[in-house]
Amino acid sequence: xxxxxxxxxxxxxxxxxxxxxxxxxxxxxxxxxxxxxxxxxxxxxxxxxxxxxxxxxxxxxxxxxxxxxxxxxxxxxxxxxxxxxxxxxxxxxxxxxxxxxxxxxxxxxxxxxxxxxxxxxxxxxxxxxxxxxxxxxxxxxxxxxxxxxxxxxxxxxxxxxxxxxxxxxxxxxxxxxxxxxxxxxxxxxxxxxxxxxxxxxxxxxxxxxxxxxxxxxxxxxxxxxxxxxxxxxxxxxxxxxxxxxxxxxxxxxxxxxxxxxxxxxxxxxxxxxxxxxxxxxxxxxxxxxxxxxxxxxxxxxxxxxxxxxxxxxxxxxxxxxxxxxxxxxxxxxxxxxxxxxxxxxxxxxxxxxxxxxxxxxxxxxxxxxxxxxxxxxxxxxxxxxxx
Length: 387
Prior knowledge:
Layout: E1 21-30, E2 34-41, E3 52-63, E4 67-69, E5 76-78, E6 84-92, E7 95-113, E8 121-128, H1 132-150, E9 153-159, H2 178-194, E10 199-203, H3 213-222, E11 227-234, E12 245-250, H4 258-268, H5 270-274, H6 283-288, H7 290-311, E13 319-325, E14 337-344, H8 348-355, H9 357-377
Parallel strand pairs: 1-4, 9-10, 9-11, 11-14, 12-13
Antiparallel strand pairs: 1-2, 2-8, 3-7, 5-6, 6-7, 7-8, 12-14
Helix pairs in contact: 2-9, 7-9
């Protein structure tokens, strides 16, 4: 059994006292391998549930205190995605009971996630989709096998954030979430790449669901990608400040400056938001991969410079330059990797651009031109065998 608690988060329900407990969110996120059910609360609380099991139903209880339900949260949530059928939220003065019905006997895990940034305390249920892991492995193996046969270069396109990890958000005047912008630009980028003979774009995240940071580049490694491009939207801690676009590649010796280090820490915290425990680096692997990493970093810098040259051709955005920071998602040594900060989502002017489908397509087109330009500058033939 598990119980969860976290440092108190401020109450969100309107008119509620800060000590009152309210269910303020009940959301499903369907991914290719699992469905995640997120129960969000106004503050931390103890709960009782099995930490993992296989069953047709799951019951989570919050005993011993009054639990309210925000008006916008349904008492019964219909999911019906082949993994989860429905979720019932029963709240009362004597406690709360939350029951999940699965489509079939299903393996699941339950965890309590502490408040992190804009995220409140959450109880998260991850329910596995039967056979989905094997299907994903077969798909990735097919991409790797076919790239040589079809003589294509594979570009893994990574849409940052996803699911209950929303990323940064626009100001009140422009309602837009980073996770939605990144997916829209990533999809448009794949479309652009696939219009070029000899290039194939593949998404690491194809919908609104959470993918751990290391899993993102592991997916790219399994498909034998030639490049890795992660799409993000920048945000400044000062409301409305910050503007322009910048491209990062990995730094092993610290960030370009303190602001870049702080920013990398924020992005790397995505795993904490998603409930992935911290992982230590393998020192032996780092030593053995030193030469390979050096080559990958050199090519990553060339890729970053070339992509930024093309993105900066859009005069609506200031070029903030090529920078380095220790982003976890860039740590593969198997291919050049960059992280593109498209624009500042907390800046109202740039948030409106990021929300605009035409701007999203234009950004994708410029990044694709940068990718093609990189292959030309690196002397890598497109349409020749990539392995």
